[in-house]
């Protein structure tokens, strides 16, 4: 008997409260949760910049992932590029991991950002040095490590860059 492979149909969408029920059911294993925030925690964080963009990763129109795009004071800790945006809290619900969703979402990222933030020319992120799988994924998808380290609240982070134009 041949198993059918579920086709991944990934889209990126700006956050809408209609996604709250699915985001409330979001789950990450303990190892992953040490490196990122849960979506609703991030959305409701009191220190989050008012102009942060919250992005939901959809698979077949179901919210399965999340990340934020931030600028301002937090971005300045990672880059001096005035046209950069900081990607934070990238995660995929553990129930949907291993299906290529993270990879597909990151491939969509440059076009998506260009569409909603046309002045941005670079994506910057910090990934914990202990999070080897994430570092490898980002590098495979074009992010570059210039050997810059940011000492964050959860330990040393590699600063990775993705040029958009």
Automatic annotation (TrEMBL):
GO function term, MF aspect, one: acyltransferase activity, transferring groups other than amino-acyl groups
Classification of source organism: Bacteria, Bacillati, Bacillota, Bacilli, Bacillales
Family annotation (SUPFAM superfamilies): Acyl-CoA N-acyltransferases (Nat)
InterPro entries: Acyl_CoA_acyltransferase, GNAT_dom
Pfam family, one: Acetyltransf_1
Signal sequence coordinates: none
Record keyword Transferase present: yes
Species in which this protein is naturally found: Jeotgalibacillus proteolyticus
UniProt-listed Gene3D superfamilies: 3.40.630.30
Keywords from the UniProt entry: Transferase
Domain N-acetyltransferase, chain residue ranges per copy: 10-165
UniProt-recorded name of the protein: GNAT family N-acetyltransferase
